[in-house]
Amino acid sequence: MASRIEHRAAFTRPASEVHAALVDRAFLDARLRELGGKDAMLLDYAVSGDTVTFKLRQGVDAQRLPSVVRTVIKGDLIVERTESWRPDGAAFTGSTAANVSAVPGDIKGAFRLADTAGGSEWSTRGEVKVSIPFIGGKIESVIAEQVNRLLAAEAEFAAKWLAGK
User: Fold this and answer.
1) pLDDT digits (tens, 9 = 90+) for 101-131
2) pTM exceeds 0.85 for this model
3) Which phi and psi angles does 100 have, rounded to 5°?
4) What is the 3-state secondary structure of the chain?
5) 102 phi/psi in degrees, rounded to 5
6) How many Cα atoms within 13 Å fall on the side-chain side of residue 139?
7) How do residues 55-103 score in pLDDT, each as one tens digit?
């Protein structure tokens, strides 16, 4: 069974401004420098009409992993994540998929960025699935917790980026 991911972040800026930042190459490079971990980089970036798609690599040092994960996975983790964003009426929607090195399984999610009375809200829903007998569920929950922390850090970074504009 998969572990769920749910995250919401509120911004004081309209969705169009937040979206413009979230898909900006300079923003992505800066976010990766600050939050991406070991050997982080923007692997691919493409614009096709109104759709922006990019692929990121992020690293997690083995010493930062919970012990239950270190018992199964030796060494650092490399996460490769693809995101695709597009306008959807007055909002922006998208999808994400990620693979974690040395972990059989995947992370999938969908997000929506829409205007609110005070600015905008970015909501993410997804799931982590790990196909390892007996302990897959425990690793899923650890990864889901780490993804939620990363999403919170990315939203905080976006808010600071927007405040500086």
Assistant:
1) 878 889 999 999 999 999 999 999 999 999 8
2) yes
3) -115, 125
4) CCEEEEEEEEECCCHHHHHHHHCCHHHHHHHHHHHCCCCCEEEEEEEECCEEEEEEEEEECHHHCCHHHHCCCCCCEEEEEEEEEEEECCEEEEEEEEEECCCCEEEEEEEEEEEECCEEEEEEEEEEEECCCCCHHHHHHHHHHHHHHHHHHHHHHHHHHHHCC
5) 65, 10
6) 21
7) 999 987 777 777 777 777 777 788 999 999 999 999 999 999 999 887 8
